[in-house]
Amino acid sequence: MVFKAIKRGLKILSNPKEEFQNLNKRTFESIVGDYMALLVSVAVLAGLASLTYSIFRAVYLDLSLDINIQYLRMINYSAGRATSLIFFYLFAGTFLQFFLSLIIKLFLKKIKYISLLKILLYSLTPFLLFAWLLPNPLPFGIWSIFLLVVGIRTYKHEHIKKNSIKKRD
């Protein structure tokens, strides 16, 4: 499931206009499923990258500067930092994203909330795929904002019958 979500994310990044136009063809549940698979995998990956970096840095400092490092305490501290980073990713990817969607909804009255969430989840793809690589994820945040604007401009509203099961708002 994760590899399928990564492939779809790369398709979004390679041709965002087409993917945002085809957004109505996917269900909200499948989009949330892809997003959560990416979010959890990126959170774990960021935690493991932080832990690995801390261990390699400690070994480097021990070998190059002749510093006496207590490795068990260092690993305990680094594991705690990595775990807190994992939980921050999960918190930011769910709750902060939800509050951001509420703020955006105040300015976009014509788009339904579920459609706005679809666009927002799609636009966060570069942030999810690449932000854990750099210490400063600001460029990927700007890229996500750009995709959000592209998504809002190219999104085609689907007309749903009033008594349809697809009616969510």
Which structural class matches the secondary elements? mainly alpha
Flag low-confidence runs: none
What percent of residues are in strands? under 5%
Mean pLDDT: 87
What distance lies between the first and last C-alpha atoms, to the nearest angstrom? Answer: 29 Å
The value of Rg in angstroms is 20 Å
Number of contiguous helices: 7
Q: What is the makeup of the main sheet? A: none
What is the total tally of β strands?
0
Shape label: elongated
Report the order of strands and helices: HHHHHHH
Description of the molecule:
By secondary structure, the protein is an all-alpha fold. The protein has seven helices and no strands. The longest helix has 38 residues, at 28-65. It starts with a helix and ends in a 15-residue tail after the last helix.
In short:
It is built from seven helices and no strands. By secondary structure, it is mainly alpha-helical.
What keywords describe this structure?
169 residues
Blueprint (SSEs and pairs):
Layout: H1 2-14, H2 16-21, H3 28-65, H4 71-107, H5 113-123, H6 125-130, H7 138-154
Helix pairs in contact: 1-3, 3-4, 3-5, 4-5, 5-7
